[in-house]
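Attaching the record inline, Q. Sequence:
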Amino acid sequence: MSTFLVDANGVLQPIGVLVAGDSRYELLPGVREYTEEIPGLDGEIDFGSEFKARVLELHCVLEILASQQPAKIREIASYLNPAAGVSTLTFADDPGKVYFVKCSGTIEVTRNASWIEFTIPFKMTNPFIMSATTTSLIGTGTAANGGNAETPFLLTVAGPVTNPSVVVANYTMAYTGTVEAGQTLTIDTEKLTVKIGETNALGTYNRVFPTLQPGNNAVTAAAAGITTLTWYSRWI
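Structure, as predicted:
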């Protein structure tokens, strides 16, 4: 995974171009609405909304002689190659937050005698901005989501424990069965998976997959074993 940084001088590293402007401060990503019109009823029935993929544009400028421009343009293309997959993008003026991006769309380069300019259309298929590092809570306590959007988490319960039950933000997550010493029950509330080791254990789980709301979330650990929550804070 490639890593991009807009440093304190506004330079996009490692490409080495000046970022003259960006679209970070659009309030929200696009929204996908689920509604239905019913004949004879006013308005629509609202079945909820979801965020679409987000577009983050960086307007870039570089002072460079015309004779050096073709080679530099090819170098920039190699950094932005979407076939290389998703990259991380961070900004020095907003530390601790990571954007997962991939170049999407055509980039037209304006060439002049001593400079070039272009706009990078980064696409965020995950429209949320994530914390740079995870936070963990072991045992009973408070799980603090420092972002402004709900976030999924990874719950592990290391054995030995029988019928472990963990309460997160008033949601009871209950597994029926025994987790032996040396085994770990893992519940991923984003992927909606439940495993003991690599074995699927969804069939004996109560299928409750909560998220952490912004702010503090109370956690009550299982009565035995070692309970651990791990999560990223998340922003829209």
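The longest strand covers residues 54-63. The CA atoms of residues 36 and 45 lie 5 Å apart.

More tomorrow.
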